[in-house]
Design a protein that fits this description.
Elements: E1 2-5, H1 9-21, E2 26-29, H2 31-40, H3 43-47, E3 51-54, H4 64-67, E4 75-79, H5 84-92, E5 97-100, H6 105-121, E6 125-128, E7 131-134, E8 141-142, E9 145-146, H7 151-162, H8 170-178, H9 189-205, E10 210-213, E11 217-220
Parallel strand pairs: 1-2, 1-3, 3-4, 4-5
Antiparallel strand pairs: 6-7, 7-8, 8-9, 10-11
């Protein structure tokens, strides 16, 4: 089943008809109705959902991150605005993909299949203790709650997570974040970024999850 959320009944009815032609079940909701349904629906009903399509909704009424607490199905935004700022805003909200309208229904189905296929091969995140660290540019989560970080600090945390269990040197971190050929930035800037990152993580976790050894480098610990 495909679930589409849009304030316009004409839109949900239209998608219902198009998916039906492809032999795919579809259910349409307004955002208020959807919120009530998704919080109370039995788990077996949610397991039947193949994807959530989010169209024109009241701002802030749909939270993809909270939705994932109940379902692992892809969350895809259907956008009528053809501009980069809106696309980036939608990705930052936690959706798995942004599709610009108009779009053929078969393309939507192909994108859903691709996302689900990748999810089976790679969860897209690393969990270390209470931290969930994503590999797609999203802010990390601490005990399920997003922890906004500046871009450099987030990338450092992602790099440490990708090397979980191994120690990485300051040079390795610098090259991963700034690039091997960046000669305009001093390598010691890594220490400043990590210091700020450690302080923020310590405040949220109650302990410092970054273990550092002089001359040996850094690694994440539980």
């Amino acid at each position: 089943m495909i679930v589409i959320v849009d304030e316009r009944e004409l839109v949900t009815n239209g998608y219902n008809s198009l998916f039906d032609r492809e032999g795919v079940a579809c259910a349409g909701f307004r955002s208020g109705e959807f919120g009530e349904w998704v919080t109370s629906a039995p788990e077996e009903d949610l397991r039947s959902v193949r994807a959530f399509l989010i169209g024109d909704c009241n701002e802030g009424s749909i939270s993809p991150r909270q939705l994932r607490d109940r379902s692992k199905a892809p969350v895809i935004a259907l956008s009528e605005q053809n501009n980069l700022e809106n696309t980036l805003k939608l990705f930052e909200s936690g959706v798995d993909d942004v599709i610009r309208k108009p779009v053929h229904i078969r393309e939507i189905l192909a994108r859903i299949s691709a996302i689900r296929r990748r999810a089976q091969e790679d969860t897209g995140f690393t969990e270390i203790g209470a931290m969930r660290i994503f590999r797609d540019g999203r802010d990390p989560e601490i005990e399920g709650q997003p922890m906004p970080l500046p871009r450099r600090e987030r990338r450092i945390l992602e790099y440490l997570a990708s090397n979980s269990g191994r120690r990485v040197t300051k040079t390795q971190v610098f090259n991963a974040i700034y690039g091997v050929f960046d000669e305009e930035v001093e390598e010691n800037v890594v220490e400043s970024h990590i210091s700020k990152l450690r302080k923020k993580l310590r405040e949220r976790l109650g302990h410092d999850p970054i273990d550092s050894k002089r001359f040996l480098g850094y690694r994440l610990i539980v």
